[in-house]
Queue: 4 jobs
Job 1
Amino acid sequence: MDNSVALAVTEQSPKCPRDIFAHLTDSINRSERKRPLGELSNFTVEKMPLCIAEVKCSERPNEAIKAFGRGVNAMLGEADYNALLVSLPQCDFEVAKTDIQYLVNCTYQMSAFAGLDPSSAELTVGTELNRLASLTCQRQPSIGVLSYEDMILTNPIQTDPRLYCLGVAGVEERDFCIGHQLIESELQSAMGALLELRDVGGADAPQCLARCLARLRSAHDVLTRFDEHMSPDLFSQFRVFYGKNPYKNTLGPSGRFSARVVAVSVLLVGEDLFRQKPQFYRDLYRLSEYYPQASIGEVFRWLSPDNNCALLKPAWLQGKASFPRSATISPLIEHRGREIKELHAACVCALDRFTRMHRSTALKHTVGPGRPLVGIESSESIEDVLCQRLLTPPS
């Protein structure tokens, strides 16, 4: 980026919804470096976006991306990154895994941009980078591609974000990730309130439901910023990097794979969802490896209280048992007074409003010629997937 055209704005990472997509600056203040893999992390954060820009502007992008791959693998050969990766504490390992997956994904996506065939793309990714990526999956089982967990939950977005774009597009990419992080935080609080109501004897039901309602409304407010203030042009510049892997049958990181959205949905309306939208649960189990594994595993344990292997498709989903209502708060609501039922209904309404806003925003920004579909398989309808958590038809 040419510093002479940088906007004269002191930029801080957004901490609340009104700060994201403010379009006030074209630079990012990295206030706290988090580089667990040393030079490899430095490369991912500082040089990768520059290399992407160079490949895109090159008259011979196929040679440029091959040179990029050779440079990355040469760098990996200069230090024992395998040993470092194994020895990192978990919090640092998760960021290191994100660094590696961002690099792998970058190489595949830019190989496709340059028109490389599959075998050339694999050679460009290279043995060393592939080996390091495989090692991350051995330590922490995952889908093996850049995931929603990598992009949103472990990416140090607020202080030292991993991004693909430079300038204003990079700031918009950062804000896109921060917006999702803010939503995840609100959903975590809503889930905590519902779990307290479900699992803690003598919990204050009105207080729990009121907390849940406030957090769902706040999550909706964040999502409104996406709908009203995110730039479609800037979005299109970075979203292409989060599409499907162009050489493998794998999906890209998507809000579809938020385990906290699933958890709140199960707790609030789990049985109604099963009755009205059973495909939601079928897809949840079918695509389970794309979700944050620890979180989705916990939800599966709720849904399979008598099953030693929670990842197996449960008997109730095959029509051989009743839906496990104990996974939800419904049994605690049925015989309560009017206040509790009204608060529960308000929470359900707030979740529905959030889901509707997500549907309309996703359709607005992702459906159209040349726009990549990220969390959708070719055999699926994006409209059907986005409506899976709606209990009433979209307006």
Job 2
Amino acid sequence: MHAWKPRTRRRRPRLVVALVACLAAVLGLTTLAVPSTAAPASTAPSGAAQDEVLLSYDKPAQSSTHQHDGTCWECVPARAFDLDPASRWATSPTDGWSDPGWISVDLGAPATVSRVVLQWDPAYATAYQIQLSDDGQNWRTAYETTSGRGFREEVAVSGTGRYVRMYGTQRSGPYGYSLWEFQVYGTGGAPTTPPPLPPDPGDPPRLVWSDEFDGAAGAGPDPARWSADPGNGRNNELQMYTASGNAFLDGSGNLVIESRREVTPGSTCPVDPLSGSTTCQYTSGRINTYGKFDFTYGRVEARIRVATTRGMWPAFWMLGSDFFSEGRPWPYTGEIDIMEHVGHEPNTVHSTLHAPAYFGAGGHGDSYELPAPAGNDFHVYAVEWDSRGMVFTVDDQVVHRVDRAELERTVGPWVFDHDFFIILNTAVGGDWPGPPDGSSVFPQRMLVDYVRVYQ
């Protein structure tokens, strides 16, 4: 794949969408929002009455200003009401990084409003009002706070009106206001039914897809299940991924991804410290299931013995299918890193999530220390994923739990309610593992006994 993932604290993103976008995320600026043709469904707020419905989905919206530039493209007010948690509205840096700032929605008919959910970008309001109106001109305050904390806020509201507005009076910082989601719940109005969430896995789950890698020695991965993804790596990696030859079966029930010290004539890589050359000095393999097996939710597991020497970066991970199907850039697709390993940390493996509000060095994840080097033996790396969250494990030992509600309250939007595909690869070099040195041993092999998905 072309995107890539770094771990909390030390990682670097493998697909650099734009330097300004990364800087914006660090500084709390609004970042690039790319429209999606899909509208992932959202659940009602916790504690919502049974007769409450989402009134604001896909309804006409207005705002005081909106941003449209290289760091937040077409961040118009409609983005806050599209149920796409990877797109958003932001006020304009030209004339909107000031107080007050507002965004409103027309519910289509008079409604009784009972709750409002705000999923803030780091550019949030510490003081704001939720206002209602019958005509979109004359507003009355239904809720007011001077202690807004950002992230996800659920606000109880009691009132009637056709129009609902967030009216910000104090910004959290020097920038503007920005919302990933602005959801209005209640009764009445003229609601548009949102698309439903995909079904959660069954209980007990059943095996729906697998590859046991049985086949003759030297044969390639099953073309009905996998595609090669050749080309350069990212993040100052030094390998060239080949179309064939570096990913093959060993005849003993394993997939081999082999990394070699092997020059690719005519290629260009960062300078290799050992040779001093910008011609790629290594080859490796990268395969994925895009277009052959794309799915939402389930238990995804693989039994792997990683390649491990200084400069190695093997991984088992998933990327949102809209990277290819819609041309949506990383990290707006979402990324699920089930396992990553870097050779200079021989006993350590990592599991991480990446999304528009938490990516690169700010990815949301954790690490696990094995009792012996990861490359000494096979281990089962897995994630259990549904509409409520994820649990990452190594040999059934929990590495990282992700509760969706807690993530939205403390980190940023959940962007994982759509199809993803599986990727296996081993990178050589890169910003995180660093380059191979005189102690590195090649060739290196990552062995994969199986990959299985249960739903």
Job 3
Amino acid sequence: MNRAGYRLVTDLPEALRPWRDRPTAWANISPTTGTYHLNAHGEYLYYPGGGTTGYDHPVGQAQFGLGCIASYRTETDPARKSLFLTRARGQADRLIDRRLEVGAAWWFPYGFDFTHTVHAGVDYDAPWYSGMAQGEILSLFVQLSQLEALTDGEKATYLEAADHAFASLQTDEYGYPWAVNVDSTGYLWIQEYPGAEPGSGDYTYNGMIYSLFGIWDYAQATGSQAAADLYDACATTIARYWPLLRNPKDCSYYCQTHRIEAYTYHQHHVELFRQLNWQTASPDFADCADRLVDDWPAAGVTGTVAFESGTHTLYRFDTAASGAWSTAAGDDLLEQKSVSFSSDTAAPASMRRRIKGRGIYYLISAGAYAGWWVGENWSKAYLRGIYLATIYRPARTVTFPGGSVPVDCYKVSADGTVTSVKTVSFASPSNAPSDRRAIVNGRPMFQITAGGLTGYWVPASAVTIDAEPAVA
């Protein structure tokens, strides 16, 4: 299998480790109704169609348990802390009790029939198995084994379970069950949806990366070289097939087989590539995250749009009532008009997003032009503030151009107020470290973290950054 040499970071801060960003809220610790809720034993099951029969859903159980562990780590109330731990262990213990043993590997079955309504060919009779589930359950077992509240014997039990879960991700012999295959060009895949034929599958991107986080956890906990090598192979595959995941200036694709735009998964892709950057210290994955942010940015950004004096074009698009993307509406242009302002002005915006087939636009939410959209256009119309930040770890290298080309750099407060401007130029290209990228007053910018420009933001269009996405 192909390996490009990605190495695992061993000193990742606690907050950046897998699943710390998805804690289970206290209000959700004991759900008793809904499609997913607890049975009388505190086990998280799937109740399709609001029925009374619950089924095992390994991904749901693993994610609920991992969320409980994330909350356990930060909770200070002893009673709540105890219940978070009880809930996490309840899911792990049920998974262990209902495992299928094949050699050294433990497999964790889905208990219900499943047909994917969008992806043709994803059709299973129970029991069925998923590489995504295997990897997430691996994380659950490893993270439980690291909690000080457990006895040495309990820790050993969960770490042994992790050994067996990891064994399921090491084989590509295509027996049954199976979840790992090497494609015709030598790239290893963990299949969220393994196909009926050996070595076939949906080649789903997010499912593979979530599974990869389990391998990272296991390698960190055990020092396993086999896990480090497997992580390297999987990261190499993701880097190689990044151009097929990405859909420039649009929403990314869910899987390689169907290439269907993943409107509900695109922001997951952004966060997953950020975490790959943190776990490997490779700028390859940070660059991928940056491009995804620009292609189809998260639409939750609100604020104030600054309008420069002069003429502006406003638009109405066919969207959901909130202004969000709707597949049925399609963002079709309904109307446009020109307006003129004799002086600089401003208006509130309830949304910033890409309009399908167009650029980035703001939805004006009050005043004479409420319900109209204006295109992002520095410096004619832009949303004030700093938003959609991506944290780099380690810092990346920004290069200023040579040839004495002037570059303006900005100190900016949280509300977008520019407090200082410094213009620099260099006879030869000059480097500076950057710890993050964000949209700052309507433009992608990098924050400089050393030297005379510490704390200043430099427009991405004025400099270059240290890596393009890798293709191994």
Job 4
Amino acid sequence: MLDLKNVRIDNCGTGISAPKGAHIKADGLEITNTKKAIELRDPPSLMKSLGLPDDTPSEYLIDAIKILEGNKELPKEDRINSLKSSSLVQWLGTTADLTTIGCVLLSAQTQGLISATLERVFG
């Protein structure tokens, strides 16, 4: 929640930028000489939050998660190396840093972030 009292914003690109759905309470708010007074932005996509390009095919992410799930018993380094054969790493090509991608996916998987989002999208 943004609670703004007696705020004056002048001569800037965007006066207020907040996530879509944010509750904004303003009392005495004055915004002048700005390109955009109030911007309500979409949350970052799942791909962007994982550091992947926005146009990453979701089935490639699912493939990578399945590979990690199938190798749960392996040490972390071996689980990451198992991603070499994934369609995600193949699609990313030479720009893919396997260790970075693997660590991000393992962390997101451990926190339940990916499965919860995939369930909402495909469930």
